[in-house]
Amino acid sequence: MARTELRDEDRAEVAEFIERHWQSRLSMSRGRKFYPHQESGLIERRGGAIVGLLTYHIDEEGMEVLTLNSTLEGAGLGSSLMLDAIEKARKEGCRKIFLVTTNDRLRVISFYQRLGFRMTAINLGVVDEARKVKPQIPLIGERGVPIHDEVVMELAIEPYLEA
Ligand SMILES: CC(C)(COP(=O)(O)OP(=O)(O)OC[C@H]1O[C@@H](n2cnc3c(N)ncnc32)[C@H](O)[C@@H]1OP(=O)(O)O)[C@@H](O)C(=O)NCCC(=O)NCCS
Questions:
Q1: What are phi and psi of 150, to 5 degrees?
Q2: Which of 107, 137, 152 to mutate to test the pocket of ligand 1 (most atoms within 8 A of CB)?
Q3: Residue 160's closest CA among 77, 104, 109, 87?
Q4: End-to-end C-alpha distance for the chain, whole angstroms
Q5: 0.90 exceeded by the pTM?
Q6: Residues paired with 45 in a beta bridge
Q7: Strand 62-70 relative to strand 96-102: parallel, antiparallel, unpaired?
Q8: Kind plus residue range of the DSSP H or E element containing 120
Q9: Separation of 121 CA from ligand 1 center, angstroms?
Q10: pLDDT, tens only, 44-88
Q11: Which of 8, 19, 39, 120 has the fewest CB atoms within 10 Å, counting from its CB?
Q12: Residue in 67, 73, 112 to alter for ligand 1 test, most ligand atoms within 8 A of Cβ
């Protein structure tokens, strides 16, 4: 395991990784634009190469996970990155960790629910709006399902108890 925080010297490589996996460096969430390689993140490397990446943004609302990728599917890496992010959110005093995914992503929605996330909102048509800004967002997603809506998933963070 070689896990590090995303540092300035990683940003060009992270931008390239994100573009390869998401067809764009731009990430859209709830009508807001993010460039995840310019944000915070956790990187997992094997033999120097990035095999896992989680990027996030912290503000007064909490920690928003912007991207999560694991190239070693089914080996526990995706879960482990998310568990580290939850711990980071707790240390940073965030009251929640959340993310948006799309209406077609039923398998990944199960993955987040197993980690304790709940579906807290469906933003109707917000992906159709985002597609006007980011045309790389496909019209049809998993299992031929048309992509229209955002699914917001969140996990409330229990604060550390003061001794
Ligand atoms: C989702 C993802 C991060 C999981 O990483 P992982 O290292 O395989 O995760 P773990 O081994 O900890 O957990 C396995 C679970 O991940 C989910 N998963 C695995 N491969 C997946 C895939 N191709 N698409 C969606 N979910 C997947 C499943 O829930 C799986 O459990 P299951 O086999 O019982 O269905 C990884 O598949 C990935 O990078 N997918 C592409 C990018 C993506 O969709 N990111 C999430 C954005 S909302």
A1: -90, 140
A2: 107
A3: 87
A4: 32
A5: yes
A6: 50
A7: parallel
A8: strand 118-123
A9: 21
A10: 999 999 999 999 999 999 999 999 999 999 999 999 999 999 999
A11: 8
A12: 73
Atom of ligand 1 nearest to the CA of 79: 12
Instruction: Ligand 1, residue 114: give the atom nearest the CA.
Output: 29
Q: Which of the four pLDDT bands, split at 50, 70 and 90, describes residue 159? A: confident
* Ligand 1 centroid – CA 73 distance (Å): 6
Query: In the sheet that 150-156 helps form, which strands lie side by side, from edge to edge?
Result: 3-5, 40-46, 49-59, 62-70, 96-102, 150-156, 118-123
Rounded Cα gap, residues 137 and 28, in angstroms: 10
CATH of domain 3-156: 3.40.630.30
| Atom 4 of ligand 1: nearest residue by CA position | 78
Amino acid identity for residue 40 in this structure:
S
Instruction: Identify whether the C-beta of residue 72 lies closer than 8 Å to the C-beta of residue 143.
Output: no
Atom of ligand 1 minimally distant from the CA of 99:
48
Number of residues assigned to the chain? 163
Q: Is 28 helix (H, G, I), strand (E, B) or coil?
A: strand
